[in-house]
UniProtKB/TrEMBL annotation:
<feature type="transmembrane region" description="Helical">
    <location>
        <begin position="79"/>
        <end position="102"/>
    </location>
</feature>
<feature type="transmembrane region" description="Helical">
    <location>
        <begin position="29"/>
        <end position="48"/>
    </location>
</feature>
<keyword id="KW-0812">Transmembrane</keyword>
<keyword id="KW-0472">Membrane</keyword>
<keyword id="KW-1133">Transmembrane helix</keyword>
<protein>
    <recommendedName>
        <fullName>TM2 domain-containing protein</fullName>
    </recommendedName>
</protein>
Length: 111
């Protein structure tokens, strides 16, 4: 019973897909890790795209106001929410997949 707990901790707290790798489900683990990394890379792109005009305004001496920052955030509002939902959805899928793997393993050991 120790293996499932370690797998859940790896996938739930560190990175989705690590628990699958730990349990030997290599293809699913690698696919989940690649998908999460792709989403994190997209999030980094959005952060840099939003931050660059704000940093530019700071470097040129333009006063930074909340209105300026909100103006830069507004066009990416929908995409940021979609990206966050995708990350959480992928994380949840990884955990649900682990629970189904545990259930399959219990069914096999009982029979």
């Amino acid at each position: 019973m120790k293996r499932p707990i370690i797998a859940l901790l790896l996938s739930g707290l560190i990175l989705p897909g690590l628990g699958q790798l730990y349990l030997g489900r290599r293809n699913k683990g690698i696919a989940l890790i690649m998908a999460v990394n792709l989403l994190l890379l997209a999030a980094l792109f959005f952060v840099m795209k939003i931050a660059s005009p704000v940093i530019g305004a700071y470097l040129t001496g333009t006063p930074l106001t909340p209105a300026l920052i909100l103006q830069q955030l507004q066009p990416y509002n929908f995409w940021a929410k979609l990206l966050l939902a995708a990350v959480f959805g992928l994380w949840g899928f990884g955990l649900v997949d682990l629970f189904s793997a545990f259930k399959e393993q219990d069914d096999v050991t009982r029979n």
